[in-house]
Amino acid sequence: MTGFQLAKVSLLRRPFPTILAVICIGSACLAADFLVSVVRSQTSVLQHLDSDYDLLIGPKSSGTELLIGGLGAGNPIEESIPFALVRFLDRRADLSHRIPIYSVGQFHDLPVVGTDSNYWERSDGFMTPTLVAGDLPSSSKEMVIGKDAALRLNLAPGDPLNIEVVPQGASDSGTLWFADFEISGIVQHSNGIRDNTLFLAIEAAWEYYRWKVEQGIEVEHKDLEAVSYILVSAVASELEFVESKVHEGSTVQVVRIPEELAFLKTLTTGANRVSNLFCVIVLLLASLTVTVSINARFDSIKQELGVLRALGYTRGELTTWLTLESFIPTLLAVILAISLELLFLPRFMDPSTTQWIPSPRHWPEIWNVLLWIFFLSISFIASGVPLYRLYRNDIGTAMEGV
Amino acid sequence: MDRPILRIDNLTLDSGSHLLIRGPSGAGKTTLLHLLAGLLEPQSGKVEIGGVALQAQTENEKCAWRRNRVGLVFQKLNLLGHLTALENVLLGSPGKGLTLEAAHAALTQLGVDRLSDKLAYKLSLGEQQRVAVARVVARKPPLILADEPTSSLDESNAELVIESLFDAKGSEGTLIVATHDDRVSSRFNEVWRLANGELQ
Fold it and tell me: Which residues of A touch B92 (CB under 8 A)?
């Protein structure tokens, strides 16, 4: 018999220990992968925040909080930003700016927001929208809707939709803003929070704003009716000018993105060291579990190893057997862990809605792959332990299973 | 210093011979066979087979020697319980050295061919003993060392086992059987007695 044949019959004829080893090792892999994943994704999001813009104008929360929300690692805070400031930026041709989301109001309890083209091009992971049907809007008369909103309103690309919005602050409850749109596409977000939203072009949102001013309705820019934040690109000489403009009695603040990002990265470097230490401890514990599982399996066959040695099986043949005997269950365990991860990990519970939402993780990442290779390597190393113990003793002792 | 388990001044066997070693339990029969197979090292003296001293050989050389030239029937049988009878016979030939036909033929010769697909742990002790003998018979090695090969067998099967071992030995091979079973003595010309670790 060859080492391959020995491994094959040993694994197949003793299914219970094989399955037990797969479950033990798989659990260790899964737990390690999950824990390391959570720790790394937390620090990774902060480490990889980036922007081509120089300034971020938003509500007066903390700079870091605003930055994380504004650059896409979380939900931007819905707060008041003076519309005069928006108009001022609009008029300045030398200041390139972007207003990702302007909240208009509600239609059938669904949020209606205006967005600019940048919103559809963002690829920050957490809120990345994907077009699942139709096209993005090509004019202010077209709109896209989230997939859950499409299901609820029974709409498909090409369908007309008449929006009626009750403006906040209107004294007459009969005052409604009407606008006709055509559904150009349906989108799905990696984070499902926005899948119930109706997205107008930002120009349509401004039309609504102008109508509201014409109607004499007070523009409060609160709650849903707000520009969440503005990203500005400015030459160095313009930065202070914009900052002074913002600070003219406004309730918002300016964050200098490069400086704030540098500060944030300094903070996360320290956190990263702690998380790396945690990862090492998790990996050590998981490796120990894998090694103990494999050696527990070998303990039951050590007498057989002695007999085979007495029968004239070479070290190479026994090595092949033991390597496969530990590698194959570990491989199956890793496949099991990957399958479970594919099934469960891409989804996280949204604490605000208690609904399952997709994970922001891009999976698998390089370190996932390295982790699996690490476990497979551990299985190789672990198979060397019984071999060492087998050849440490004479054959007579080995045959007694010592 | 502890008393030695086995003390043999001189034991020489010609190629093609057969020897029965008798003695009570604990006399050192198994130790002697293990020394001859290179499984144990003598504390002093030497074991020389075919002009080569086993002690002078490396572990790999001894392994290759057992693999190619020695057939062992263990007292404890040492079948692998999760393998079938046929697989246990194939197990006796490391690598790809034994054909299925040869393994089946050995099982047939020992009268256990009908059990070839049965897992070893499900066999009776007598059946296991015949499978253990078939493991050696299938290979026909030049040196056969059998430790109590008939201990769990009735008379006819004991006879069958001894005949099979002689058949496997052929005219050139050497057969050494250690037993305290009186039934097999008549088949051997040379019978040595081992008592208290010494040949008599």
Answer: 311
Percentage of chain A beyond pLDDT 90 is 5
**Is the distance from CB of A310 to CB of A395 less than 8 angstroms?**
yes
Instruction: Report DSSP letters for B126-190, one per residue.
Output: HHHHHHHHHHHHTT--SEEEEESTTTT--HHHHHHHHHHHHHHHTTT-EEEEEE--GGGGGG-SE
A311 closest CA partner among B66, B95, B133, B21: B66
On the question of pLDDT at B55 being above 90, the answer is: no
Report chain A's mean pLDDT, rounded to a whole number.
Answer: 76
Is A308 near chain B, with CB under 8 Å? yes
Q: Going along A174-330, which residue ranges are E strands?
A: 177-189, 198-201, 230-233, 252-256
Residue B192, min C-alpha distance to chain A (Å)? 24
Question: Mind listing the pLDDT tens digit for each residue in A163-183?
Answer: 887 776 666 666 778 888 999
Contact B94 A310 (CB under 8 A): no
Question: Number of A:B CB contacts under 8 A?
Answer: 66
Among the partner-chain residues A13, A314, A394, the one whose CB lies closest to the CB of B63 is: A314
Reported as a pLDDT band with limits 50, 70 and 90, residue A397 is confident
3-class DSSP state for residue A146?
A: strand
CB of B5 less than 8 A from some CB of A: no
Range B18-40+53-199 has CATH code 3.40.50.300: yes
The interface residues of chain A toward chain B in range 287-306, judged by CB-CB distance below 8 A, are: 304
The encoded tokens of residue A219 equal 């523009």
Delimit the domains of chain B by residue range.
Answer: 18-40+53-199
pLDDT at A349 over 60: no
Question: Tell me, what's the pLDDT at A165?
Answer: 79
Tens digits of residue pLDDT in B78-105: 899 889 999 999 998 888 778 889 999 9
Q: Is the model's pLDDT at A160 over the cut of 80? A: yes
Is A212 within 8 Å of chain B by CB? no
CB neighbours (10 Å) of residue A166?
13
Q: Do B82 and A394 touch (CB under 8 A)?
A: no
Q: Which of residues 102-141 of B touch A (CB under 8 A)?
A: 119
- Answering whether pTM is above 0.90, one says no
Cβ of B96 within 8 Å of Cβ of A394? The answer is no
